[in-house]
Amino acid sequence: MLSTFGHLFRVTTWGESHGPALGCTIDGCPPGLKLDMEDVQHQLSRRRPGQSKLVTPRKEPDKIEILSGVFEGVTTGTPIQMVIWNKDADSRKYRQWKDTWRPSHADYTYEAKYGRRDWRGGGRASARETAARVAAGAVAQQWLQARYGVEIVAWVERVERLVAEVDGDSVDRQSVDAHPTRCPDPAVAGDMAELIQTARIDRDSLGGVVGCVARGVPAGWGEPVFGKAEALLAYGMMSLPAAKGFESGAGFNGATMRGSHHNDPFATDDQGRVVTTTNHAGGILGGISSGMPITMRVAFKPVATIARPQKTVNRQGQDVDILMKGRHDPCVLPRAVPLVEAMAALVLMDLALMQEARASFRDTPSS
Ligand SMILES: Cc1cc2nc3c(=O)[nH]c(=O)nc-3n(C[C@H](O)[C@H](O)[C@H](O)COP(=O)(O)O)c2cc1C
Prior knowledge:
The protein is of the alpha+beta class. The chain has one domain: Chorismate synthase, AroC fold (4-Layer Sandwich). The chain has helices spanning about 35-45, 105-115, 130-150, 175, 185-200, 230-240, 250-255, 260, 335-360; strands spanning about 5, 10-15, 20-25, 65-70, 70, 75, 80-85, 150-160, 160-165, 210-215, 245-250, 265-270, 275, 285, 290, 295-300, 310-315, 320-325. The protein has a 5-stranded antiparallel sheet with strand order 1-2-3-7-4, covered by helices on one side. Strands 9-8-10-16-11 form a 5-stranded antiparallel sheet. Helix 1 packs across helix 3. Flavin mononucleotide binds next to helix 9.
């Protein structure tokens, strides 16, 4: 809890947006994983600010340094410590807002909780914290890929009213990254980019939905009843900044369907494996993976910092206007894609390790 996520693969993140550094400690990573740090860096570069005209121009290189837990390029099983130094933090403009609550941000609630807060750049509530999760998630993705061939792909499915058609069975990261919106549907991606630019000019922000699939997850991962795979995925995704909704499989749309249409018929494939011919369940039954692709969606709100005067109150309870000019994201969706992949990987690796722990006694013959 608090700053730690996971049970057997435990990730603690630390650091503030404008502090000297931020990072994560991973406890419970199995030994023997050949860690590709270039791949970890690549995932961070997909999250970092300044990567296209559609996102905040803050210029953070987000260079990752690994301090422990890896020897000769291979994990040792001891805690992995990773650090990212903050380079482009400009705290000056935040001083003017230190006694004023930004509408829709976490200033008021952090103060209500702790009686104080680091007001520079959103402090701990800043989405910069997610760089640490992306680094930990990249480690989990490498382990899942190496041990089980699991592949996790997320994409931008919706920006405000524009919705993409994406085939979760075939979508890959190359097609996602082919456009700066990270929408792999070329028919919609251009319009999404235009919409985001228009919002920037209007000094407004836009929300949307990230879709995600995990392919290759074997049947049996997930812990009934409070550790249901979809419950833990929802928990992980809803811990992301600006996340406001989670769907598993057919999700809310499933509520409009009839059982005769929603039920996924079982069949066997040409290799004799149990499959379902549709996947409205999103690859999870009873909280346990069925072997079908695990599918989910995460809704992100239009973020708080818009360069328009807004009504709020200050620490003294006086009505004031606030104008937040600066380097902000008009739409966080393109940068949220690697975050969703990271959280999916953290949950799935934790569930995989739990299932491996159980496998050693699952087949014990009863007397
Ligand atoms: C990738 C990413 C970038 C973000 N950038 C901003 C931003 O520029 N301005 C802002 O107000 N919020 C931004 N947010 C959202 C805030 O961090 C978040 O709204 C805030 O911490 C309050 O938390 P809540 O929205 O989960 O309640 C961003 C979120 C993500 C995922």
